[in-house]
Write a structure and sequence with these properties.
By secondary structure, the chain is mainly beta. Helices cover about 15% and strands about 55% of the residues. The protein is built from 2 helices and 11 strands; from the N terminus they run αββββββαβββββ. Strand 7 and strand 8 form a beta hairpin. The radius of gyration is 20 Å and the shape is elongated. The N terminus is likely disordered.
Length: about 190
């Protein structure tokens, strides 16, 4: 009986080690990762923009259904296609990029649907304030990249945030909405 318990404990330890061995490190590919935002404009159209400079890392354990992500966005890299609008977005009225040059998303709570990531919950730091945020996957996949000869995992994630929770109140009195739709397209390369 004692040998059986020892063998069972040893097998459980090996299985736990094997599950832990499934955890892999990935580096965010900036050429396939974009953070975009959408906000209504006087109820007529939608203003859109994106951040062109970002970096980060992902830890993913599909077998253990867990992970961790860190994404840093350069607030000065905002791009809407209109230089004057970009300048205003970077001003103290909105992103205050001179004072807060980085936006950060950090998460260590992953939800899975089978072996695919369904949502990532963490915190968003913007204008020096940190709030909880859940990014919901609209699609997620891992594949062997034929050019890089490495595994790449990624997907399209979305959420809506209340910008006033971060102190971004510009235009509220004029009727601009407080809700901002965020879309995060991310691909990360296994290291």
């Amino acid at each position: 009986m004692r040998k059986s318990l020892f063998a069972l404990a040893a097998a459980a330890t090996l299985m736990a080690g094997a599950a832990h061995a499934e955890s892999a490190a990935y580096a965010i590919d900036p050429s396939h990762t974009f953070v975009t935002f959408e906000i209504g404009h006087f109820g007529t159209t939608t203003n859109r923009g994106r951040f062109d400079k970002k970096e980060g890392s992902v830890q993913l354990d599909r077998a253990g259904k867990s992970g961790k992500v860190e994404l840093t966005i350069d607030a000065t890299s905002i791009s809407t296609g209109t230089a004057a609008f970009d300048k205003h977005l970077q001003s103290a009225d909105l992103f205050d990029a001179a004072k807060y040059p980085t936006i950060k998303f950090a998460a260590d709570n992953f939800s899975f649907n089978g072996d695919k990531v369904a949502a990532v919950t963490g915190t968003l730091t913007l204008l020096g304030k940190t709030q909880p945020v859940t990014l919901t996957a609209k699609q997620f996949n891992c594949y062997q990249n034929p050019m890089l000869k490495r595994e790449v995992c990624g997907g399209d994630f979305e959420t809506t945030i209340d910008r006033t929770a971060f102190g971004m109140n510009y235009g509220i009195a004029w009727g601009f909405p407080k809700d901002v739709h965020l879309v995060v397209q991310v691909e990360a390369v296994k290291q």
